[in-house]
Amino acid sequence: MRNIIGCFFIGLIAVFSTFAQADSVPIIETSENLSNTITQLTSKNNELKNRLKWQKEQIAHITTHQNTILAQISHVQNTLATLDEQGEWLSFSTALGETLRLQLLNLPEKPKPQAIDAEIAEAKVSQLNDNNSLKQLENYPNLTKNKFDNRQINEYRQLIREQNELLKTTMSGYDTIILELTKLKIANSQLINAIDSVNDAAHRYFFWVADVNPINTYFLLDFAKDTLFVLFSVDTASQIYHACIDIIKTPSLLFLLVITLIAVFIDFKTKPKYNQYLDKSASRVGKVTQDSFSLTMKVVVYSLLMALPIPILWAIIGYVLQMNWQYPAVVALGYGVNAAAPILWVFIISAHFASPKGLFIAHFAWPEFQVRSAMKYYQLSVWVVIPLVMIVMSFDHYNNRQFAATIGRFSFILLCFALVFMTNAIHRAGVPLYIDKKGSGCNLFSRILWVILLSAPWVAIFAACLGYLSTAQILLGRLEASVVTWFGLLVIYFMIRRWMWIQKRRIEFERAKQRRIERLAQRAKSEEDHTTNSNTPDVIDEPVIDLDVISAQSLQLVRSIIAMIALISMVLLWSELHSAFAFMENIKLWGTKVIINGNEVEHYISLSSVFIAILVLTITVQLVKNLPALLELGILQHLDLAPGTGYAISTVSKYIILLVGCMIAFSFVGIDWAKIQWLIAALGVGLGFGLQEIFANFISGLIMLFEKPVRIGDTVTIRDLTGTITKINTRATTIVDWDRKEIVMPNKAFITEQLVNWSLSDAITRIVLTIPATIDADSQLVMDILLKVAKECEYVLNDPEPQVFLVDIQEGIQLFEVRLFASEMSHRMPLRSEIQQLIIKEYCKHGLTLPFPPLQTNLESLGRKTGRRTYTIGTI
């Protein structure tokens, strides 16, 4: 893409150059014009000659650079070969490890390909300009001898020919330069690949190998000697003094320091205003009419900004010290200061968040004693941890780690002890590392994380004592960075919880206001109520909302998204150490046969393949669990889909992801499609016989998801069961009936049996009631009464309108049918109850009676058969 854009700009430059030079062809009409043209041609030819000279020098310089790069490639390849040959002996000789580490320190730096790309682009532009100039030479006029002097004409023509040859030569020279630069670019790429290979090999061989000698009885003596040597024998103080003098004499570095000092001064001056804003925002938090999420966002932003100047000053100091390359001790100190700057920023941010009116206590409502307990060793972190980090990182970069085994290791062990105190304080404060579905931080996964975090400093101390100093430093650093990332995501989770809590409180408050208005309207209608309650103040109760109960689904979605972000962050953070765990490739567990180019080859499954398969399965399970919420939030809610389509898409997507994830995971452990196809075929036969019902239910479930004869939330009647669809799974569908019982129905029944869906395309249902009346009753009066009560019932729809018919006469009884329509299935029973109450009330009002056939009841009680037609009141 970068090359395409570069060529595009080169073409534009060439076009503009063509237009710019199109009018530069001279018009020669007089001797004076000819003299000026000759002067211009001479100047141009001299410029082309100088460019040819520069081209030769440039080609020689590029060739020299190529030879240097090739020599560096050879050196790096030899170093890689040495590592591969002697890597297995590193665990037996510390001296060999130190020798190989010195070779790694002497590796060349990675070249910067951007400069070569710019030179190639510039050469192409110059070549295009020369090509345009060559074309313009053809437009120069041919002079006649009648009008001008022969000497001038000959000189003019000779200059034209000379410029033509010079332009062709320069264009050829640019071709050579572009070719040589391309070769140099390829060589740079080879050098970069070789350096990356050496670094991977170094991680692979050195990471799990002791880089210093184990601690013995002479360690304290060596530590004292090295400390005295650094303080008195090495001119550290002199180097720092001269570096400070050089900084003062360098305007750019001094300007950076002055700017950052001004920022720190402004930070201290604005601290009272910041504290005032914290007090003001904390006083508004929790009050439904004043609280808002913007208060929390402003506190977060202001806290980050207030914590920024000092770490920036720290980083600038480190940068300035690193610029003094002539003083090795100062450069090493600069590395240490730079490494401590982000850690210092995290500590200051935590202090701002943990203030009494800050984010944790005032906005998140965390118990103040827990926050105070967690920040118990804050002074320790600032005045002990930061200097120790500086010392450890400084001696890692000073004089080929000359004092890393003594001063560096001792400082690292002290740093681990400080981390022990800090992590224990945070753990005793009850800070959760993982929030489960119930919103609780007390769960198994959180306890496992705390065990890892609490034991990590002790393991690092033990490894450093055994000589694995670099390994302990790298792993502990990655772990602490993971903890900081994890806590950052935890803060984001609680911020989202607070936003949801504010929204819920606001909704409840608006509802309470509406209820208050309704109560006031009712009081205005009744003088007695107004008199009774005139002295009673109107109090609006601010409801206390349990967010984990009310917004459980939304919080589950938030947890799913944050869990995915945390997983991706951990993978990216630890991916740099992938070569360090390459030793697992050598641990072979079992073998399998693989067909390659028609030949059967033995392929061994290593421990790393098993771990990768487990990681793939873990990611697959997380995707399957969290995919519906992520799809609903990111895509489906923005699409105009029919009811149930989104559920079908989510379900099928889960099946596809599960299938693909399992196939990828199985391929890492040697179970590929070629080996399981016979098993699949055998399972197919089994599905056709023993598992045909399960297979039929599975296919029926897919048909239900796409054809949608039933959807989530539909009210259906199948067999003698009526209820609401709540789940459509792979094998069965769950129906909740009117008694709140869950019935699991096989999917096959919904496809092969008769099904009544009361709400598939229209939720309106018809209810038919059979109402009797005596034979002497006025039938028109009865019909009018039934129509009247139908219109009075609030559950009866006006469109379609209710209907009343006299449908039959049985043994002195008139039978009327009332046909009504309800808007939804849940209104059927309330409609029947209310309208029958109204009918009884109207019958009593008009002196009508409901007949009852006693003879039929007596005959039925005796078990005799009767030929009379019977009726059932209230049939559908």
Automatic annotation (TrEMBL):
The keyword Cell membrane applies. Residues 651-692 form the Mechanosensitive ion channel transmembrane helices 2/3 domain. Gene3D superfamilies: 1.10.287.1260, 2.30.30.60, 3.30.70.100. It comes from the Bacteria. Pfam families: MS_channel_1st, MS_channel_2nd, MS_channel_3rd, MscS_TM. Keywords: Cell membrane, Coiled coil, Membrane, Signal, Transmembrane, Transmembrane helix. Residues 767-848 form the Mechanosensitive ion channel MscS C-terminal domain. Residues 1-22 form the signal peptide. It is found in: Cell membrane. The keyword Metal-binding does not apply. Residues 255-590 form the Mechanosensitive ion channel inner membrane domain. Residues 694-759 form the Mechanosensitive ion channel MscS domain. It is a multi-pass membrane protein. Its main location: membrane. InterPro entries: LSM_dom_sf (IPR010920), MS_channel_1st (IPR049142), MS_channel_C (IPR049278), MscS-like_channel (IPR052702), MscS_beta-dom_sf (IPR023408), MscS_channel_2nd (IPR006685), MscS_channel_C_sf (IPR011066), MscS_channel_TM-2 (IPR011014). Residues 31-58 form a coiled coil. Belongs to the MscS (TC 1.A.23) family. NCBIfam families: PRK10929.1. This is Miniconductance mechanosensitive channel MscM. The lineage of its organism: Bacteria, Pseudomonadati, Pseudomonadota, Gammaproteobacteria, Orbales.
